[in-house]
Design a protein that fits this description.
This protein folds into 3 domains: about 1-40 and about 95-150 and about 270-355, FAD/NAD(P)-binding domain (3-Layer(bba) Sandwich); about 160-265, FAD/NAD(P)-binding domain; about 370-475, Enolase-like, domain 1 (2-Layer Sandwich). Helix content is about 30%, strand content about 25%. It is built from 16 helices and 21 strands. It binds flavin-adenine dinucleotide (FAD) and nicotinamide-adenine-dinucleotide. GO terms for molecular function: dihydrolipoyl dehydrogenase (NADH) activity; flavin adenine dinucleotide binding.
Amino acid sequence: MTETEFDLIVIGGGAVAENVADRAVQGGLTAVLIESELVGGECSYWACMPSKALLRSGIALRAAQNVGGAKEAVTGGLDVAATLRRRDSFTSNWDDQGQVDWVEGAGISLVRGHGRLTGVKTVSVEAADGTVTNLTARHAVVVSTGSDPLLPDVDGLADAEPWTPRDATSAKVIPDSLAIIGGGVVAVEMATAYASFGCAVTVIARGGLLGKEEDFAAELVGESLEKLGATLRLGVSPTKAQRGADGVTLTLSDGGTVTAAEVLVATGRAPRTGDIGLDTVGLEPGDWLDVDDTLLVRGETNHHHGWLYATGDVNHRALLTHQGKYQARAAGDVIVARALGRAVHDGEWGTHAATADHRSVPQVTFSDPEVASVGLTSTAAADAGYEIRVVDYELGNVAGASLQADGYVGRARMVVDEKRRVVLGVTFVGQDVSELIHAATIAIVGEVTVDRLWHAVPAYPTMNEIWLRLLETYGRP
Ligand SMILES: Cc1cc2nc3c(=O)[nH]c(=O)nc-3n(C[C@H](O)[C@H](O)[C@H](O)COP(=O)(O)OP(=O)(O)OC[C@H]3O[C@@H](n4cnc5c(N)ncnc54)[C@H](O)[C@@H]3O)c2cc1C
Ligand SMILES: NC(=O)c1ccc[n+]([C@@H]2O[C@H](COP(=O)([O-])OP(=O)(O)OC[C@H]3O[C@@H](n4cnc5c(N)ncnc54)[C@H](O)[C@@H]3O)[C@@H](O)[C@H]2O)c1
């Protein structure tokens, strides 16, 4: 007989869900994952991994082309077919057996099908063949269903069969032209990848590029996208879309038009909560799930019972895999602690609190140049009422960077809380900066003072000497 009672039920089987279940099982509980598509979720098959694989080959080629001695040896262009094959290997050709093996090995149960809450601590799973399994949780249910792409309300857009990010990351054939609606991370990364493939890319971004980053990110990434051959239509929105013989024609708010073989919509995400039975527990279907720092869903039903958690994209705290997995570790461990009556450490920076979600979320946009940032931007810090000092430095003037690439162009910004003399935020824009950002994350989480940072000596000649240059610009204590 199939087991139907578990200590923990996790609805969703993405990267975040896997980590919640793993922590719970390691803590001695039983756990089941419910997955309706591929175990491993968006990140493994349609988001982080395939998108980074599509980008990496072009970035590596241009890195070689930027170094005298290497550039003479690199005479060909990008091999698009080989790049797509490499992408396919990273998605295991959209086969999740490897992840299923991992789940089994970790001692986690798996039920395939669509999960829905049916009441407090009860969940039903509808398999593809219509079979229904009813599950009961002894201690907790975690919703980890992720997010769906958002389709803006543009006349004719839905009928024009636009690409979602999934189509862009899993494409088997690169179209001759691609119009991209949106100016966020997906839009910028896919514009970079597709422009590298020789596709004629037009980015239509009503609010400009990378609006959540420091302004210079948009400036440097925009210049470089244009160098790659992309056309930028900033400050305009599409008002109408129509598919015809030549592809899709978009009419823009400034009266212009753009015609492309395909149109990619990259305008943000919506919560996957429309059909998961939220109404059965007094919550609103289709809403993001608001949680406290232990990832417990806020709401009347839960307030009394403390059994429903939400991790990953669905709680809208930070739509990033690494941050979702960080929440998963806290949630899995706190579920164990509460189930076994152990001490709960939910104070700021406690084991069971996802404090970093508010203070220190790192993000890398794998454009060319890369944008790597963590903590607060200068605008966000000023808006939050901090008394700040902003320190900028040209990365190209760092010896390590000038060795990394001939004519290295990049910029760094450090935002300092003048009262406590600690770093609030750091942004790096430039080639290979993705690997620099973790030092900034540690400085912010550790609340290291700028005076102490002088003792963190970067090796010469590495790009990390940017820290020394930022400190010199800030001034010796
Ligand atoms: C193009 C793109 C690129 C990205 N690149 C990066 C990146 O480089 N780095 C980064 O950190 N983040 C990146 N992200 C964001 C990242 O993909 C998400 O933050 C991450 O996937 C969220 O993980 P999750 O487990 O919350 O949700 P998901 O990965 O979406 O997992 C949810 C799972 O739940 C399943 N599910 C949903 N509803 C049900 C149900 N009712 N019953 C059963 N199963 C259900 C789904 O099938 C899915 O497998 C990218 C996003 C996109 C769109
Ligand atoms: N490298 C990474 O870490 C990575 C890569 C891709 C995606 N992600 C994450 O996935 C999430 C989704 O990415 P995204 O780029 O879709 O969202 P986003 O929120 O980053 O960007 C959405 C963009 O769409 C625009 N927009 C919104 N509504 C619009 C409308 N009606 N018409 C025209 N433009 C509109 C916004 O101005 C913005 O430029 C983000 O939170 C992102 O952080 C991360």
